[in-house]
Design brief:
By secondary structure, the chain is of the alpha+beta class. The chain contains 14 helices and 18 strands. It folds into three domains: 72 residues, Dna Ligase, domain 1; 128 residues, D-amino Acid Aminotransferase, Chain A, domain 1 (2-Layer Sandwich); 159 residues, Rossmann fold. It is elongated and about 85 Å long. Bound molecules: guanosine-5'-diphosphate and manganese (II) ion.
């Protein structure tokens, strides 16, 4: 689980790693007020779960409350890496003399904890690693190995810290190491660790990723207001909803809802849609002989997904029959209604009966079928995929 910068800094504080005084704001008005309380130049930092904010315009400055407010308005309008900005961290603006890098991560291949140190901070460390790998100091530790004071000094020396402050910076490294182990972290970075013009070392940024499987060991996170949250690798709300109904389902990046037959047909459908230039919004498997209720539930998942612009449906009736499939779709049309254009095809077991049932139901209530175009074996599946891609494009 990734933490927001301000959450990471709360943990830093707890472990005596110096951070700037900060306040959190959820609106430009709040920023205006807080900037007044600071009564000095401030930095405004969008709180999002991705790095590279500096480059993306997600870090701004304000020399007075008015400027802070107008910069905050810009930030709240911004999407950084696809994330909307909902919170801004306001801090006293540091006068930066130097930007350093200090990070800890796991070396999974060798079962080690690794501290990474570089006197060139602020920029992406991956970039330095590519360009000048010799500039990065790596210290490896066994999982149960202690951090010794002299190692702190080695780190501080690598960061070109002046002698009187070697211990101070060494202690920051030692504290970060303790924090990393105490909280079962996967990654902790201070980038940049700043040397200010009045000679202080301060963590100007935090990046922390914790091991989800160990979160139960840290109830205090909840007390600090740090909640478990969705991120890559965790289930999305729709995936949870699908799981509750026992439907194998995965959210993908695209905008075409995929309503296939079994898993194999589902994979093929996603392949066809991609081939014709579309992007599936999901992968789904009906999971064995689906009842009409189950089929209707599957369609609800797609129809209620705001990302979905059109729905592709293809059924190859094998053990589960196309007339049962048609029953499920008709049930959905009657009870829920279709708000997205959907194009579908049925072949295989009982497909003629399925088509006949649709025609019959359409005769009775043409309005239900306004958004649904259905075909039998006469239209090849490629055409259905192409049509779904077109429909999604038309919907913009
Ligand atoms: P990131 O780009 O998401 O990693 O965000 P950072 O918090 O690291 O900020 C990006 C850059 O903004 C830093 O490397 C600094 O150069 C600059 N920056 C951040 N905070 C301050 C500050 O308080 N004062 C000044 N002068 N620059 C800052
Ligand atoms: Mn940073």
């Amino acid at each position: 689980m990734r933490l927001y910068e301000h959450e990471g800094k709360d943990l830093f504080s707890k472990y005596k790693i110096p951070v700037p005084q900060g306040r959190l704001a959820k609106s430009a008005e709040e920023v205006f007020e807080l900037a007044g309380e600071f009564n000095k130049p401030i930095v405004l930092k969008s709180q999002i779960l991705t790095g590279g904010r500096g480059k993306a315009g997600g870090v701004k400055f304000g020399s007075d409350p008015q400027e802070a407010k107008s910069e905050a308005e810009k930030l709240f309008d911004l999407q950084v890496g696809g994330f909307p900005v909902e919170k801004i961290l306001i801090e006293e603006k540091l006068k930066i003399e130097k930007e350093l890098y200090l990070g800890i991560t796991l070396d999974r291949a060798n079962y080690k904890i690794v501290i990474l140190v570089c006197a060139e901070g602020g920029v992406e460390i991956e970039e330095v690693a590519r360009r000048d790998p010799q500039k990065i100091l790596k210290l490896s530790f066994d999982i149960d190995e202690k951090f010794h004071q002299f190692q702190g000094l080695v780190i501080a020396k690598w960061l070109e810290v002046d002698s009187p402050q070697l211990r101070e910076v060494g202690a920051i490294a030692g504290n970060l190491f303790r924090l990393f182990k105490d909280y079962d972290a996967k990654l902790m970075e201070i980038n940049p660790l700043v040397l200010t013009s009045d000679g202080k070392y301060v963590a100007a940024d935090s990046r922390i990723s914790l091991d989800d499987d160990a979160l139960f060991r840290h109830p205090d996170l909840k007390e600090m207001g740090i909640e478990k949250r969705h991120e890559e690798g965790e289930l999305t709300p729709r995936e949870i909803q699908a799981r509750e109904r026992d439907i194998p389902y995965l959210d993908l990046e695209g905008d075409i809802g995929m309503f296939p037959g079994g898993a194999g047909f589902g994979i093929m459908g996603n392949d066809f849609v991609s081939y014709f230039g579309g992007e599936p919004a999901n992968f789904m498997d009906s999971g064995g002989g689906p009842t009409p209720e189950r089929l209707a539930n599957m369609l609800v998942l797609l129809d209620e997904n705001p990302k979905v612009k059109a729905i592709f449906a293809a059924r190859f009736g094998g053990i589960s029959r196309c007339d049962d499939f048609a029953k499920g779709v008709i049930k959905f049309l009657k009870e829920h209604g279709l708000s997205k254009p959907m194009v579908m095809r049925m072949t295989g077991n009982m497909w003629q009966e399925g088509v006949r049932m649709f025609e019959e139901a359409r005769k009775q209530n043409p309005k239900l079928f306004e958004k649904l175009e259905f075909h039998g074996i006469e239209v090849p599946i490629e055409e259905i995929a192409k049509k779904a891609v077109e429909l999604a494009k038309e919907a913009g």
